[in-house]
Design goal:
It is built from one helix and four strands, in the order ββαββ. By secondary structure, the protein is mainly β. The chain has one domain: Beta Barrel (OB fold (Dihydrolipoamide Acetyltransferase, E2P)). Strands 1-2 form a two-stranded antiparallel sheet. A two-stranded antiparallel ribbon has the order 3-4. β3 and β4 form a beta hairpin. The longest helix is centred in the middle third of the chain and has 5 residues. The chain is elongated and about 65 Å long.
Length: 77
């Protein structure tokens, strides 16, 4: 469901990516352009959806996520 919303210089392209994600207000009303953004660019969300705590955003367009999980060790069972 691609949509166009009026912006400062005409129409702005944004889309609903589905999977329960709401399109951010910045993507609809903002003025940034990012071809790798799933809401305003030409990228689709596929594969697994990660869930965790963001630890670092130092890299460009990249984040480091901490995921907590339990690891079974037979010795301590």
């Amino acid at each position: 469901k691609d949509k166009k919303a009026p912006g400062k210089s005409g129409h702005r392209y944004w889309k609903n990516v589905g999977l329960g994600f709401k399109t951010p207000k910045e993507a609809i009303e903002g003025n940034y352009v990012d071809k790798k953004c799933p809401f305003t660019g030409n990228v689709s969300i596929r594969g697994r959806i990660l869930q965790g705590v963001v630890k670092s955003t130092k890299m460009n367009r990249t984040i480091v996520i901490r995921r907590d999980y339990l690891h079974y060790i037979k010795k301590y069972a």
